[in-house]
Amino acid sequence: MKGIEVRSRYVAHFSVHRIQSEAPVSERHYQFTSESVSEGHPDKVCDRISDAIVDAHLQAMPEARVAVETLTTTNRVIIAGEARGSADVDADLMAQLAREAIRDIGYEQEGFHWETAEVEVLVHEQSADIAQGVDQSGNKDEGAGDQGIMFGYACRETPELMPAPVLYAHRILQRLAQARHSGEAPTLRPDSKSQVTVAYDDGKPTGATSIVVSTQHSEESESSEDIRAIVEPYVREVLPEGWISGETVWHVNPTGKFIIGGPDGDCGLTGRKIIVDTYGGAAPHGGGAFSGKDPTKVDRSAAYAARYLAKNVVAGGFADRCTIQLSYAIGVSQPLSVYVNLHDSGRVGEEAMEKALRQVFDMSPRGIRQHLQLNRPIYARTAAYGHFGREPDKDGGFSWEKTDLIDAIENAL
Question: What are phi and psi of 147, to 5 degrees?
Answer without folding.
Answer: -80, 165
